[in-house]
Amino acid sequence: MSVRASNERHLAGAAQEDPAAVLYRSPQQPSIDGNTVDMDVERNRFARTPCITTPTFPFSNHQIKLMLAALQG
């Protein structure tokens, strides 16, 4: 599969031949209705996300303030 450029200044591109990998978790306990969602695992992952992302916000906010101060002189 080739990618067509409509302008000579466009960068050359290439399409991927391999499809994206499918990511899934194996269920720890099968259910009767075929549902593979484990609510305990999902709740733990949901609760863990703020613990990972929250510490980066003050650092990012400080970096943005420094850049604004540099731009304003």
Task: Give a brief outline of the structure.
This protein has 73 residues and is mainly α.
Kindly describe this structure.
It contains two helices and no strands.
Fraction in helix: 40-55%
- Overall structural class, as computed from helix and strand content, comes to mainly alpha
Strand content: under 5%
Global mean pLDDT: 76
Distance between the termini: 50 Å
Reading the helices and strands in chain order gives HH
Largest beta-sheet characterization? none
Task: Write the topology of this structure.
Layout: H1 39-53, H2 56-72
Which features would summarize this protein structure in a list?
mainly alpha, about 70 residues, flat, 2 helices
